[in-house]
Structure formats: structure tokens, C-alpha cells
Predict the 3D structure of the following.
Amino acid sequence: MRLRLLRALATAITISLGTIVFLGLIFGDSSGDGAGLLPGIVRGLGFVQLTNLLLQLTVITIALTVLIGVWNLVMVHFGRVTARRGGWFYSLVALLSFLLVIGLTLAERANILTTAPGERSASMILLETVQISIESALAGLLLFALVYGAARLMHRRVTWWGVLFTAAMLLILLGALPLDSVGGLAQIQRWLLAVPVSAGARGILLGIALATIVTGVRVLIGQDRSYRE
Amino acid sequence: MDSTTQTLAILIFLLTMVVSIVVTQFLRRRRAFITLREVPAYALLPLRIGEAIEASRPIHMSFGSSGLGGENTLLTLAGAELFYQVARRAAISPTAPIITLSDPSTLAVAQDTLRRAYTAANFPERFRATSARWYPAGPRSLVFAAALTGMMGDNDVSAHVLVGSFGTELALIAGAAARRGQPVIAASDQLQGQAVAFAMSESALIGEEIFAAGAYLGESNSQVASIFALDVLRWLLILFILVPTLLTVVSEITRRSASGG
């Protein structure tokens, strides 16, 4: 009985706040002409101010989730180290790196670790020499992963869609070559990108947009059950 | 927002709401009213979950960089529905499914998805909050991809369901999974990620298919009704594109024939 009441309460809160934010966002924009019964009611009831307040609260809550994320990260790796599960040594390195960066940043903030004017701080040096280098190396590897993926598509199974995908990809890559002998291919490449690729991309994006609308409406009318269980 | 856009937004909202409610009520009486077309990825999922349970290895699911509060909030909810259906089936396995993400706002959604799945499967005591894992990522998500390639080996993952927001870094994850013989079912709201998903996954979900998980894997009438509502909106959109185009072509032909005559 108590659980049912809680579910009903959760549904009521979701529907009412969702509807207020929806109406507040639609009619709260000052660029509209503001005439009509519904915009007048929405503004008169203070939905616009309430919407802004709710959105600010959302932004603050989302910002706080970083702390929850850090706690989760530490707990996952700490659990692996203490249980000596596979890859525990890497988890130990992750934990020590975490503590090192936190320690460095705190030391910089407390002026224990000072930096001369014009020089980079220790935490910034760490970021630039470790994370950016690793990301750049991975970006280089990405090319090989993409080529491997294209090769694997035809290796796994030969379908009409697979053949079409590979042929289009090869045409576009060949058309991008800066050679005079492939001038005709460059025209085909431009047409492919301007007509079928653009149409297909718009089709996929329109499909996602329509599904997003339906999912949003399901949440607003209380048909989505994820917050009720 | 001008008044035409405001009116259209309200009309689309009302139409979707009415179709969803009416079809849900209709389906309660006649379940066979709507037959869903086959989506290969959803047909494959139960098989991959069964293999994971038999091998006592975890299924890995990932939201990528999709999060709450931004433009892909509803994609996050759709992904959560799919992961709930997978986790509910995989809950009988002693090895817990793993959910990974790079946006911390999704962490609570991931943990709640697992908790609900274990509760629905009558194994609430098996839920572990650390089965949902946040891997911090830079703007290009390459570090996230690198973390996943390490995780899939350490945890001896059975299969991957990657549904969320991924860019070309999906190629690194899918490539590493392929080298380990771990099948991948993938989809992304980013076009680059979607192209990689099509080329490198065992079966890809395309576009709005991401949002249909509840209808295909769940038993709820309202979720099947949402597919019907989506189809109604799709046909209306097609009409809104085709009718003005045809009218323009006809008027142009009439104008030319009149000026020629």
C-alpha cells in the first residue's frame, strides 16, 4: 500500500513538473507574440519563473554528480585492489595517480607548491604530458581501427548492404585523393555526399527526433515506468 | 519561439499523447492488433544473454557519453530501458552485468537500472552498485574507449551492448572486442558512431530502433503503443514533406505550360 502511494506520488510529481517545464519552455520565450489564452495562463501562473528555477536546480544537481562519479571510481578500483581481481595492479596505479593529482592540486591551491610567473603548474604539466599524449596516440590508432572495421565488414558476411557500404566508402576515399587521374571520381564523391549521404543522414536524424518526441511524451503522461519501480 | 512553432509543438504533443493512450487501451483487448517487424539486433540479444549466463561471464552495456540534462537525455532513458531488459534476463547469472558510462549524470540512472532489474528478477541481494562504472573522459572520449578495451579483458566480458552517444572512438572498442571474439551490438545518435556501428558490430540498431527496446524485449502494451505513435508521426512527416513538394512541382508545370502556350 505504501509502495503504491510512493509510486503514485512519483508519477504525479513527474507529470506535473514535466508539464510545467514543457509549457514554460514553449511559451516562456520572449520572441513569441505572447497573444492567446494558453500563453497568458502559462505566464500568469508563473510557470516561466518556475521552469527557470527547476532548470537551475537540474544544472546544480548534475554538477554535483561528478563527486558521486569520483566516489564510484575510487570504490571500483579499491574493490579490485583489495580483492586482487584481474588487473588489480592497474587499479592500484589509477588510485595512486588519483591521489597524486589531488595532492598536487591541493598543494598548488594552498601555495605550498608555487609556480614562477609564465611557467606551467605541475598539475598542468601532468595533464599535458600524460593525458594529451595518450589521447593523441589513440587518435592515431583510430585510423587503423577504422580500416580494420571496413575489412572486417566484408570478411564476416557478404551482404548487399555491406557491398554498398564498402563501395561507397572506397569511392569517397579515392575521390578525396589529390590526383588528376581521379578527377571523375571527385565529382561522384561530391554527388554522393550531397545527395544520398545527406538524405540518409537526415533520415536517421529525423527518425531519432521523432522517437525522442514519443519517448518524451511517454514520460510526461506517466507511461514510462522507470521512476515508479 | 514564434506562435506557429508553439502551435505545432502543442499539436504534436497532443497527437502523440492521444495515439499512445488510445492504442494502449486498444492493445489491452487485442494484443495481436500490432505486429512488430523483426529487428535483427533485438532477435540476437536473448541468444547473447543466454551464452553469457551459460559461460558465467558478464554482459557489458555502455551509455557512451550520453547524459541527463542535455540534448541526449531521452536517448539516455531509451538506453536505460534496453539495459534494464538485458539486465533483467541476465540477473539469474552469478556474474553481474556491467554498465559503463562517461557522463557522471548517467551514473545514478545506470545504478537504478541494475537495481530495478535485479528486483524484477527476484534477486535484489545480488545488486552491486559498483557494477555501474564511471570512466572519466576527455572531450574526444578516446580515453573512455581505452578504458573499455582494458575492462573487457580484465572482466572477461561475454558480449557488448553499446547503445548511447559514441563517435568514431567506437571503432577502438569494437576492434578490441573483435580481437577477443566478443560480439558487439551497437548504436549511436552520432552519425560517425552510427557508421562505425554498422560496419563493426555483429548487428546494429539504426536510428529510432534504439528507442524500441521496451516494445521488443518487454511485455508492456504502452511501449508497443509508442511504436504505433512513432509510425503515425513518421507518416505525417512524410506527408508534410511530399504534399508541398508535389504541389510545387504541379504548379511549376502548370505555370510553364501556361507561359509556353
